From TrEMBL:
Source organism: Artemisia annua
GO molecular function, one term: lactoperoxidase activity
Residue ranges of domain Plant heme peroxidase family profile in the record: 27-332
Record keyword Kinase present: no
Name of the protein in its database record: Peroxidase
Cofactor(s) listed in the protein's UniProt record: Ca(2+); heme b
Length: 333
């Protein structure tokens, strides 16, 4: 009975997510700027090369920024908006506060594009191009980015809290959040692989390292040493909330499939990551973790496909009332 109930709940969640999903086929094309700004992608790539060369962690920052943008109102650049008297942006929502970086990189890219092609390339497209280039520059796959997004004049701090997957979310909650965006379980596992680069804050992994880490991990000498290091930077009693640790301690600045190897050993830093492999409900997700651990090419191919799907989540309102911002931090006046 318990298994049947679980299956029923899962099916119900899936049905609800599919029913209320808001993503649709967007009016995006690969040659959108062919005549209006033919050097757009080259400009983005050059600036990203400078940013990642100066600090490899900038790659993960831009990739995360893109993800957080697309999960709230679609990929519309809303995450880039600063708070004003008239607008409460997404940057200072609890989930995003102290977690998002790279805004200055997008500013520099946008300034270059405004010099070359004023009022032409949207901030939403800039961020989508930049996320692709960030991935490539640290060893990840390349994919073609459809363009033509418009920038939103609005933002939603409340949707940040409801839409963005949390570090301590259970598997069914994560599945429901991805399916709400019309992203499949396969997309979820592949996109989670972005955690092969980047850092997590203590506030997001404290519960994990003082909770079930030792239950899921094989606790080899390496795992034991790693756990001690994590606890030294993230005290149980509180404090040090913004201290950071790599989500992939094997190759934190290289985009590869070692993240999945870490999950196989039960050493995922975030509880939500380890759920992909260790959850009793995760038959499909655990099989995908194994697949991507065994075959990096399969992971790269699916990640590329899933990133295109992520980038194609648009905000339909922007095609009625959107714009191309001159400054990504503020709506045009």
């Amino acid at each position: 009975m318990e298994i049947k109930s679980t299956i029923f709940i899962f099916s119900l969640i899936t049905l609800c997510c599919l029913t209320f999903s808001h993503a649709a086929d967007p009016p995006l094309t690969l040659d959108y700027y062919k005549s209006t700004c033919p050097n757009a992608e080259a400009i983005v790539r050059k600036e990203m090369e400078c940013a990642v060369t100066s600090d490899l962690r900038n790659a993960a920052a831009i990739l995360r920024l893109h993800f957080h943008d697309c999960f709230v109102q679609g990929c519309d650049g809303s995450v880039l908006l600063d708070d004003t008297y008239m607008l409460k942006g997404e940057k200072n929502a609890p989930t995003n506060l102290n977690a998002l970086k790279g805004f200055d990189i997008i500013d520099r890219i946008k300034n270059k594009l405004e010099s070359e092609c004023p009022g032409t390339v949207s901030c939403a497209d800039v961020l989508t191009y930049a996320a692709r280039d960030a991935t490539v520059l640290v060893g990840g796959p390349y994919w073609h980015v459809p363009a033509g997004r418009k920038d939103s004049k609005t933002a939603s701090a409340s949707l940040v809290e409801s839409n963005i997957p949390g570090a301590n979310n259970g598997l069914l909650t994560m599945i429901s959040k991805f399916m709400y965006q019309s992203l499949s379980v396969t997309d979820m596992v592949a996109l989670s692989g972005a955690h092969t680069i980047g850092m997590a804050r203590c506030t997001n992994y404290r519960a994990r390292i003082y909770g079930d880490y030792q239950r899921t991990a094989t606790m080899s000498s390496i795992a034991d040493s790693n756990l001690k290091t994590l606890k030294s930077t993230c005290p149980a009693a509180g404090g040090g909330d913004n201290n950071e640790s790599a989500m992939d301690y094997i190759s934190p600045n290289l985009f590869d499939n070692s993240y999945y190897h870490i999950l196989l050993r039960g050493e995922g830093l975030l509880a939500s990551d380890q759920e992909l492999y260790s959850s009793m409900l995760g038959v499909q997700t655990s099989n995908l973790v194994k697949k991507y651990a065994e075959n990096q090419l399969a992971f790269f191919e699916q990640f590329s496909e899933s990133m295109v799907k992520l980038g194609n989540i648009t905000n339909p309102e922007t095609y009625v009332d959107g714009e191309v911002r001159k400054n990504c931090r503020f709506v045009n006046t």
